[in-house]
Amino acid sequence: MNAHKAIPVAFRTPQHPSLGTNNWGGASPLLARDISKESLEQRYVRLNSTRTRDEIFPVFEDDLDWAPSENKAKQDVHYGSKTASMIRGLLPKFVMFRRKEKESSKKKRWFLPRLDPHNSSSVTMAVTLRRLLTITPKTPNIFHFLSSSSQPTFSSSPTQNPENLNPPLSEPQIPNYPIASRTRTPLEQQFETWVQILKPGFSPLQVSDALWAQSDPDLAFDIFRWTAQQRGYKHNHLTYLTMIKILIEGKRFSNAETLVDEVMAGACEMSVPLYNSMIRFCCNRKFLFNRAFDVYKKMINSEDCKPNLETYNMLFNSLLRRFNKLNVCYVYLRAVRSLTKQMKASGVIPDAFVLNMIIKAYSKCLELDEAIRVFHEMGLYKCEPNAYTYGYITKGLCEKGRVSQGFGFYKEMKDKGLVPSGSTFMIVICSLAMDRRFDEATEVVFDMLGCSMSPDFLTYKTLLEGLCRDGKGDEALKLAEEFRQKDGLMTTKTYNNLLDLLHFKKS
């Protein structure tokens, strides 16, 4: 015992044998001592060995009360032997201790006798008993009970074959139930109804009537596509025109754009109403502005479908929507001039609406000579100028600085009994006031008030400040009082602000 007893040494992390030298930056306390190599290897074995269950769960001597009292000395002698240590590790697993009988209980309880470790039959019985006690029953698979068709039917008859009681387990079989057909929606039923109505040999006119009869644009588009796939049938300009109008009214713009591309690719023969419908759709869409002129170019190059007045009307209107800023106006003015020349060359006679748009385009770009020339050409086309015609030219002339000529068009408009717009009134008033023609500007203000229209604060300010700068402060104050009496829309705040602007020169 003493020969195998090792000297206890405080553990320190040793140097790995493969290194050969100490590269840790300092000497290890364990290597500094004079310890034999056998002791170091013994420590390595103790640390790296895997402990058995008996070493993890040790059994104390008090639990091993199986030996007789007279053999106690022999037990102590053989305690350190190999056989005794093996028995000490096995017995705690199998020994069932005897329960003490209660003095108050009269019934005797069953107990197991103490096991003899030297008797192999006793130890085997204990192992078998422990296995039986520790077996846990498996949880039955509930899915085998759910699939009743895959299991045999059990009965209480004693003549039943016992082998069928535990049949081999197999995968549950899903019964094949009949799949019910999906209920058709009303749109599908309506589609099938029209498919049955449109029998083979239908004409494009019948397809057009069927498309107009649909209240749902998607259903109409499905019928349109279905008819195109039928043998011996091809869509013409009538069916394409009908379908494009239905899609635009139903706000199916992506589908309508697809049909426009198909028509441009030559899907059917063309017609003027189909061209105009495509141009109107492209003009109303912001991102299809250039596509409208592509359709127009194809239309003007065709032999049978030339542009008409409606075509130019839509194109001029689309161009004038982009006349928002002065710099942008000059970009589109070239297109206006080109369209005007092509319209005259094709023999299309413009109406007053188209001529007014041309005049407005020239006036916006301050090309007043061109605007006045178109104004004089209106008589050749038997078109009478209206309030919009005079208003565009009057505002353009005043903005150009030609106030006298603009005021002349204003008087001519008044003599014809035409009522100018509010913007025309205010531009003329400001232009006259800045030209120091205060009497004429005051007259235009009263004309505007007589038409139940009220000038804005800037118009009043321009006129009254001009009078004050000209040394007519008293006259400006009187006019402010008259404007307040006749202008029912002037607020007290506006009147007080106008009075604050007035100033008088010292005499």
TrEMBL record:
Key words, A-Z: Repeat
Transmembrane parts of this sequence: none
Gene3D superfamilies assigned: Tetratricopeptide repeat domain (1.25.40.10)
Matches recorded under InterPro entries: PPR_rpt (IPR002885), TPR-like_helical_dom_sf (IPR011990)
Pfam families for the chain: PPR (PF01535), PPR_1 (PF12854), PPR_2 (PF13041)
PPR repeats: 351-385, 386-420, 456-486
Gene Ontology MF terms: mRNA binding
Region (Disordered): 151-171
Matching PROSITE patterns: PPR
Protein family: Belongs to the PPR family. P subfamily.
Protein name per its UniProtKB record: Pentatricopeptide repeat-containing protein
Species this chain originates from: Cannabis sativa (Hemp)
